[in-house]
Amino acid sequence: MEPTRVMIGVNQSSIKGYPYPSISSQRAFEWTLQKIIRDNTSGFKLVFLHVQVPDEDGFNDMDSIYASPEDFKSMKNREKKRGLHLLEYFVNRCHEIGVACEAWIQKGDPQETICHEVKRVQPDFLVVGCRGLGPFQRVFVGTVSEFCVKHAECPVITIKRRAEDTPQDPVDD
Amino acid sequence: MEPTRVMIGVNQSSIKGYPYPSISSQRAFEWTLQKIIRDNTSGFKLVFLHVQVPDEDGFNDMDSIYASPEDFKSMKNREKKRGLHLLEYFVNRCHEIGVACEAWIQKGDPQETICHEVKRVQPDFLVVGCRGLGPFQRVFVGTVSEFCVKHAECPVITIKRRAEDTPQDPVDD
User: Fold this and answer.
1) What is the ipTM of this complex?
2) Helix B110-121 vs helix B144-151: angle between axes, to the nearest 10 degrees?
3) Residues in B touching A156 (Cβ below 8 Å)
4) Rounded to an integer, what distance in angstroms lies between the CA atom of residue B48 and that of residue B87?
5) Residue B160 to residue A156, Cβ atoms within 8 A
């Protein structure tokens, strides 16, 4: 019997930055371990997807000087490397517990990219964290999870951040 | 470690009636067994909820004569009994497989009642089937699953009916 393949969308903390996972993606991961996988570690395979949003003006590192195409290239590599450190966190946890996993990075719009990867990878289901914002906040922030619930071609389960984990500004992560 | 408590909303087939489960609720149940529970039967407890919609004019059985309050009472009991036969199907399957379960019937509006029961019973997550209708059909049919995703106070996973199981009229079940 093939293991159940669970895709989990993960992103970095908007407060602490890389390599720290956001509270909501960490919560989605821990919830999946506790409530779904439990002690059946051989029955599941986790596939982690991290989508990096390309910076619109290309200046993520304000303290760096970009004088040549090479400099931009090195910046891109640096960003990617930070993404890898984020994934390392999840892969290490899986290794400790003994759950098979895969992890990769894509650049693009998070919601579109997640749905595209679902189509390509065909997981049994997708887990996404969400910040549990009120309707007023949602209008401005937009929610990746709502988009995925509507558009992903597999079942989707949305895990809300716990009240006690919510930072003062609920939009932050 | 407490078992993971999974609530599954189940209803009867709109084509075959009681005691046959709808294609989408049967699919939601089988999916949960295959993809989540797998062979970890002791790690989970299924809680089945069937919501009966009260008939607006009170005449579900056109061939019966209602001459006294007692007749109406017996009708209600008959309805309830049919609901019990529906639940019997799921409880029997669980018993065969060795998964702990509970099942009960409530009267009311399905989406409101499911969300109310989630609040009361506090399952770890809720599984609901859905017919996978297009946006045009959804406007007329309304979808219980969309309402639950938005309003239930626990994570919700929506399982779509498979294409090959879809009857000629996709609104039917």
Assistant:
1) 0.86
2) 40
3) 157-158
4) 7
5) no
Interchain CB distance below 8 Å, B39 and A43: yes
The DSSP call for residue B70 is: H
What residues in A contact B125, CB-CB < 8 Å? 35, 157
**Domains, in order of start, for chain A:** 4-58+67-165 (3.40.50.620)
pTM metric for this prediction: 0.88
B117 pLDDT tier (thresholds 50, 70, 90): very high
Measured at the CA of A88, the angle between CA A85 and CA A91, to 5 degrees, comes to 165
Q: Can you tell me the distance from the alpha carbon of A35 to that of A15, in angstroms, rounded to the nearest whole number? A: 28
The pLDDT tens digits of the residues spanning A65-124 come to: 667 777 767 767 887 788 999 999 999 999 999 999 999 999 999 999 999 999 999 999
pLDDT-derived band of residue A36, with 50, 70 and 90 as boundaries? Answer: very high
pLDDT at A41: 98
Two tokens, residue B160: 């779509």
Please tell me the distance in Å from A40's CA to the nearest CA on chain B: 7
Task: Quote the CA–CA distance of B96 and A87 in Å, as a whole number.
Answer: 41
The three-state secondary structure class of B19 is: strand
Query: What element of type H or E holds B88?
Result: helix B69-97
Q: Cβ of B157 and A43 within 8 Å?
A: no
Distance CA B170, CA B65 (A): 34
